[in-house]
Amino acid sequence: YAFVSVNVVEQESADVFTLVAPDSFTVHVTPEQLRKLGVSNVLSPQKLDAMQFNGYSFERIGETIDGRTPYRIVQHQ
């Protein structure tokens, strides 16, 4: 098993994975990379709807619970 954290970034990172501990790592991905992986919704403590991404945005789709808000990834044409 491992604890996985995802950090949404504006541009692709050279270091996609950061080892935090032997059983914990962080993945740094763009919204485009998330979509390519088949991800359409995310749960985040970040205010993703206030951030700017190249061709993508995040739409809030529910209530914030325990500091985490659900968002839908939206691709702009």
Keyword list:
77 residues, 1 helix, three-stranded mixed beta sheet, mainly beta, globular
Characterise the protein shown here.
The protein has 77 residues and is mostly beta strands. The chain has one domain. The protein has one helix and six strands, in the order E-E-E-H-E-E-E. It has a three-stranded mixed β-sheet. A three-stranded antiparallel β-sheet has the order 4-6-5. The mean pLDDT is 94.
Summarize the structure.
This protein is mainly beta and 77 residues long. The protein is built from one helix and six strands, in the order E-E-E-H-E-E-E.
Structural category is: mainly beta
Low-confidence runs of at least 5 consecutive residues: none
The sequence of SSEs as H and E is EEEHEEE
- Mean pLDDT comes to 94
Tell me the major beta sheet. Answer: 3 strands, mixed
Name the helicity range. Answer: under 10%
